[in-house]
Design a protein that fits this description.
19% of the residues lie in helices and 28% in strands. The chain is of the alpha+beta class and 696 residues long.
Length: 696
């Protein structure tokens, strides 16, 4: 935060008069006003252009989701948003079939103030600095719509303490309209730049022009330079969103723009679609990041490289689905590592809400259960590993911490796949998490004993099969043949995970056995300490032991199995998920299907640093974890009794930062602002895990 133009030694009336004059003429903030700086920040592009029929916006119908009601084959967006947290008033019905979990397929309107609030809240929750609001030189209904979105974003940024600035795009030859829009609407009409959350650099309001010099845009160098000069003469700090090859004027860049770029205060070259593999990312560093930075350093111009999570637009402009794979965040984190290695202090993320081109980092559909069942949409789990809907918000938040020096850089992705409440979920559709291992024996847990393949030769199999799923058309299929009346077993390694188990953690899945022998199967778990689920006394909600040696389900029917595994495994960490078969006394074939595998913990949600009380029926208590007054406290024990406590505190990266013990009601610890996972355990072996947000 910086304070500009603080006026002293004059009466209050004169101060107000002079401030009014300065604001009107030189476009600087008024007396005593502070504005955020771009230094050591990550800014995300914000489209805000999604309108829906029925949202009462000036667009009067669907916009950018599609020209008409989105329906199968009629859409212009690639990634489906996670709609769980939007209010019903901000969601509008599409023409798609229901989502995989049965919810109506609805989409949000960006016109709503509540939508802007929610987006800025997500930024605040994850430590993301703010956004650059895209503004296409507007007219007619779109101007009214854009003006409202700008005002809504301003209010939300102020409410959630996020920064923002205006980014003009698609300007073309309408330079006069651009200048009028800035002066008459943004500055004087809507007073956007007067917001205390509007970004200022060197005491000047920030404005960005995206596309000057791009071969696909219609601007020319003379008009572009005139526009940059006009804005700088009117007291602005000017950023240029420029072509990748701005230095050479080749490929995506027009020649003759050197003077335009030299007149800017900051350069931000576009990179979306310019590289795909790790080798490509590293080549970009060598051939672009390094020489770009050297040239700009020599000219005294700031550098704001662009990074993006992945890219595809098969639903809009064709091309391959998942064209530029995100690779569970590895692609984006590689880009960030290269940027950070050069000591660069400004980063731009493409984009916050760009669902059209598949670059959105905001909450998006995690898997099959979050998307319509009759239209392809990219999910965050499409690369075969379950990622929660907020994964990329958390990843950009981690990058922000690294850029600010509050977190160390790591070669690999520093955040867990999920922070709950859903830690793993799959129906094994192509957009879901998949098997890590196929038909692979888990020798540590029992391996293959007296079993062969279905025909009596080779090994038993565990694969993803199509055509017979409970939800969708895919499921896991196990098959084999017992070869002896003695003890027979087939324990397959299925999915590699790293999931903490708390008291409220549950495991659920569906099973469809093809014969009575096939009923002796199910999902098993292996903990990091070697404990298996089948070796405990765990039972499902029907009272059946969770060992695969216990028959479950009905032949040729789907049966859902649910087990509160936290009752037996709390405090441990799941290392891998198994598919197990175990029986003795019968020789014959076995085959069955498993689907809708979910591991979740619904008791790990918190708000503003305190846990809401939760009921643990097995303890007959209501327990909450509180961080306040420099101490962690478990509250809610019966009769106020507090036995010896052990607390493990983990940072957002998943690394344990403290282990503490205490015998009183609380354990002293000082936690700086941030998000933490706290696992507390008493001397009776009971444990509780909570996500703690320290706001101050």
């Amino acid at each position: 935060m910086k304070t500009f133009y603080r006026l002293t030694d004059m009466s209050k009336a004169k101060t107000i008069l002079l401030c009014s004059f300065l604001c009107a003429v030189t476009i600087v903030p008024c007396y005593g006003q502070t504005h955020p700086s771009l230094d050591s920040t990550i800014i995300c592009g914000y489209q805000g252009w999604f309108a829906c029929s029925g949202d009462n916006s000036p667009m009067g119908g669907w916009f950018h989701w599609n020209g008409g009601q989105p329906s199968p084959g009629h859409q212009s967006f690639e990634v489906y948003p996670d709609i769980v947290e939007y209010s019903s008033a901000d969601l509008f019905q599409t023409g798609y079939a229901a989502l995989g979990d049965g919810r109506p397929a609805k989409l949000f309107s960006a016109y709503k103030q509540e939508t802007s609030d929610l987006h800025c809240k997500w930024m605040q929750d994850n430590g993301i600095d703010g956004v650059a609001l895209q503004r296409f030189t507007p007219s007619g209904n779109y101007k009214s719509y854009s003006d409202s979105v700008a005002v809504h974003l301003m209010h939300s940024a102020e409410k959630y303490n996020r920064m923002f600035y205006i980014m003009y795009d698609g300007i073309g030859d309408n330079m006069a309209g651009l200048e009028a829009d800035w002066q008459n609407t943004i500055v004087n009409g809507l007073k956007i730049t007067s917001s205390p959350r509007y970004a200022y650099e060197n005491g000047k309001p920030v404005v960005c022009f995206w596309g000057f010099g791009l071969t696909s845009y219609s601007d020319n160098a003379t008009d572009a330079l005139a526009a940059v000069t006009w804005f700088k003469n009117h007291g602005c700090y000017v950023i240029g969103g420029v072509p990748t090859n701005w230095r050479t004027g080749t490929s995506d860049a027009k020649p003759g723009y050197a003077q335009v770029y030299a007149a800017m205060d900051m350069i931000s070259p576009w990179t979306v679609g310019r590289y795909k593999s790790d080798a490509d990312v590293d080549n970009y560093k060598t051939n672009y990041l390094v020489p770009d930075k050297a040239k700009l350093d020599g000219q005294g111009i700031a550098y704001q490289p662009v990074m993006f999570p992945g890219f595809a637009w098969s639903n809009w402009n064709g091309g391959a689905p998942n064209d530029f794979p995100r690779r569970q965040g590895k692609f984006m984190w590689r880009q960030f590592n290269n940027i950070k290695s050069l000591g660069i202090k400004f980063v731009y993320v493409a984009m916050f809400d760009e669902y059209d081109e598949g670059t959105a980092i905001t909450k998006a559909a995690a898997d099959y259960f979050d998307v319509p069942t009759n239209q392809y949409f990219q999910t965050l789990s499409i690369d075969g590993v379950y990622l929660s809907s907020d994964f990329y918000l958390r990843l950009v938040g981690a990058a922000t911490k690294v850029l600010k020096g509050t977190m160390a850089i790591t070669p690999g992705v520093p955040i867990p796949n999920s922070m709950g409440p859903i830690y793993f979920r799959s129906s094994f559709e192509p957009v879901d998490a998949q098997l890590t291992w196929v038909s692979t024996s888990d020798t540590v847990s029992g391996g293959f004993q007296n079993v062969a393949g279905p025909a009596g030769t080779g090994n038993p199999t565990c694969i993803v099969a199509s055509g017979s799923g409970l939800s969708g058309s895919h499921c896991v299929q196990y098959s084999g043949k017992t070869t002896s009346t003695g003890s027979a077993a087939a324990f397959f390694k299925a999915v590699d995970v790293d999931i903490p188990v708390v008291t409220g953690t549950t495991l659920s899945y569906a099973i469809n056995p093809s014969s009575d022998l096939s009923r002796y199967a199910g999902i098993d778990l292996v903990m990091t300490d070697g404990t298996t689920l089948h070796s405990t006394a765990a039972t499902d909600t029907a009272g059946l032991n969770m060992s695969p040696a216990v028959a479950r389900g009905t032949v040729n029917q789907w049966t859902t199995i649910k087990c509160p595994i936290g009752n037996w495994l709390a405090g441990k960490t799941i290392d891998r998920i198994l598919v197990g078969f175990s029986h003795s006394g019968l020789v014959g074939q076995f085959m069955g299907s498993l689907d809708n595998l979910v591991i979740r913990a619904d008791n790990a949600t918190n708000v503003a640093g305190t846990e809401q009380p939760k009921s643990f029926h097995n303890h007959a208590q209501s327990i909450s974890v509180l961080y306040a007054g420099g101490a962690l406290t478990i509250v809610g024990f019966e009769k106020g009794s507090h036995p010896t406590l052990l607390a493990d505190v983990y940072g957002i990266s998943g690394k344990r930062i403290a282990r503490l013990t205490g015998s009183a009601a609380s354990i002293p610890i000082s936690l700086p602002k941030g998000i933490y996972i706290v696992r507390m355990q008493d001397n009776a072996g009971r444990s509780w895990m909570s996500r703690i947000s320290v706001m101050k």
